[in-house]
Amino acid sequence: MMAALWRWLDDRPQVMQILRYLVVGVVNTGFGYGLYAGLIWLGLDRYSAQAIGYVLGTGFNYLTYSRHVFTGAGPAKFRFILSYAGNYLLNLAGLRAVSGFVADPYLAGAVTTLAVVVLNYLVLKRLVFRN
User: What angle, 0 to 180 degrees and rounded to 10, lies between the N-to-C axes of helices 46-68 and 77-99?
Assistant: First the structure.
């Protein structure tokens, strides 16, 4: 049964790319959210923690996405940085909005992160890692 599933997936590269994006995204999110939570735990406010975590996470994310998800694309460091700058502003606005309803900074950061996953995939696929 597993062999049939892998053959089916091999015939659908778009599905495989989305699955790789999700798996790598879990790793990237764990890294970024771990930085955010660790900085909150160290006493930083949620906005400073998000900024620092985002900057450090951007480099990590570029490496993982370019090596494991969008492997056929050429170098895209500048477009990636621009997309993540826009993504950061969206995340910041989302954190501000969610914080109006969710007092806990850990939960507010998690909700904000989950909200931008789909948009980030579309931006990376269509605008950043173009063939």
Answer: 140
